[in-house]
Write a structure and sequence with these properties.
471 residues, alpha+beta, Glutamine Phosphoribosylpyrophosphate, subunit 1, domain 1, Rossmann fold, seven-stranded antiparallel sheet, six-stranded antiparallel sheet, 17 helices, 21 strands, disordered N terminus, disordered C terminus
Amino acid sequence: MFDKYDKYDKYKDECGVVGVYNHTEASNMAYLGLYALQHRGQESAGIVSSDSRQIHSHKGMGLVADVFSKKVLDGLPGTSAMGHVRYSTTGDSHIKNAQPFVVEYARGAIAIAHNGNLVNARILRDELEAYGSIFQSSMDTEVIVHLIASSKESRLEDRLVYALGRVRGSYSLLILTKKRLIAARDPNGFRPLLLGRLREGWVVASETCAFDLIEAEFVREIEPGEILVIDEKGTTSHRPFAPAPYTPCIFEFIYFARPDSFIFGANVYKVRKNLGMVLAREHPVEADMVIPVPDSGVPAAIRYAEESGIPFEMGLVRNHYVGRTFIEPRDSIRHFGVKIKLNAVKDILAGKRVVVVDDSIVRGTTSRKIIKMIRNAGAREVHLRISSPPTVAPCFYGIDTPTREELIASSLSVGEITRFVTSDSLGYLSTEGLYQAVKDAGGNFCDACFTGRYPVETSGEARAPQLVLFK
């Protein structure tokens, strides 16, 4: 398997959720929705369905196409369904941590799917275990389930209000019962969650790209702090929590969301092009071509080229069919982990002064190898441009990130990073430029990864590494 620092030298997409209510092919629609959201999690996938009498479930490790077949989907009957793709931010990589999480308790069966991260999960889990709760998994989502079960309220909605009132952090979650679909979003609105209309039914998803595939009509975003109940009566909205500052994750625009999605009031592709425009104004350079690091760097590179008047080229080609691991030959190949994913086009790059546009630098090891690859293809100069500010702090709200010590910009200056990655120059987008690029979305954002300012107080447990991979 190639070096883990090649493979994990990027922030990882957190999770994606989709829910369907009142559709004759609910599980098929959820399956297609997960297909559209595959970029948000490649570790595991799961779908639960309800036929009004019982909840049916199927989960597995791997991609959506590997986990589900027509036979499996035929075994998920009913007019309501809910799906989840996962990349763990808390909890080990194991089938027991795959979602949706299904439980039977005194009030019946419920299934829950969660995108986010609870910063006080460890504290709550210790408290619940002290009172006799037995946990089946290591994921923070199960804490919500136990809080629901321990509530003294009679209605599920009230039990959910109690549970969510105890947790801190980020959550965009769905709950499926035999006859209802419930959506909830944390008061800060860290993660996206949107409502759509699907003929006579409803759909809720992490991004609008899921709506496009199944031809659902986008209605609105689930509002921060809102609990939306969908049942045979239609939709009923509850806002039981005190208002909090609206701080959606700005990195959704930079990297996580699909460019064809509409989230937080703006189109992702347009925002990414704006990032490139501002970047070109802040860090111009004389060059022969602009090339992106595909795929997330493409929109910013296009606009950087337009703004600077430098031709755009696809000087790096990405292999889209790389799995999560790959066996390296015994005769070791230098920079194998990067080469298996990217290849430089020598005929384009030879003898040229090249601007390389990428969305971020995490550890810097991958940037270093990409630049060496471009130089080996014959480039005369390589100028690196990053369409976000330096990443100096980890995220605790649902994105898996290395520790602060592993983030190169937390300890090195721009000049030192330039020398490490071996580029002729390096330019990061400024924080002011970042906000200029996302002004169409309005409001404030969570920019803790760039500033170290956390909208929700984090405990010591949350500041530990979020993934075993980084230990």
